[in-house]
Design goal:
Layout lengths: L16 H12 L3 H17 L4 H19 L5 H4 L5 H16 L5 H21 L8
Length: 135
């Protein structure tokens, strides 16, 4: 995994992929307090700069990922995803990515979809065949 920061269109947000991966891994391991601690690190870095609608949407998307998993509700799409089905994960990745880049959406919405895109990217990489998983 590269240490390249994640940047999206004219609304840019610099977030370490390592920090994002820590949030996503913590969520999957149901370590929600740890995920929220890392989310606060991102929030603190973003708030040092001039926070805009894109950043607000991105943070809301990350918060939503944590809340959907924490609820463990079968009504949320994240709790119904098969983490090994790369075809479905890639489908969601493509859909969220298109929405994140669509200039017809407001910056808040593009930020929100960017967070979901990053989560799906993490899930696709995690689901690749031959990848060793922690036990």
């Amino acid at each position: 995994m590269s240490s390249k920061k994640i940047e999206r269109d004219e609304n840019k947000i610099s977030v370490s992929p390592l920090l994002l991966n820590r949030i996503f891994q913590s969520v999957l391991e149901r370590k929600f307090t740890e995920a929220e601690r890392n989310l606060e690190k991102i929030r603190a870095k973003i708030e040092k700069k001039d926070i805009g609608e894109f950043e607000r949407g991105f943070m809301r998307g990350l918060t939503g990922i944590i809340l959907m998993h924490r609820s463990n509700s079968p009504d949320t799409f994240l709790n119904n995803l098969n983490p090994k089905n790369t075809k479905v994960l890639k489908k969601y990745y493509e859909e969220f990515s298109k929405n994140a880049e669509n200039k017809l959406h407001a910056p808040y919405d593009r930020g929100y979809f960017s967070a979901l895109t990053e989560y799906m990217r993490f899930m696709v990489k995690r689901a690749k065949p031959g990848r060793k998983t922690k036990k």
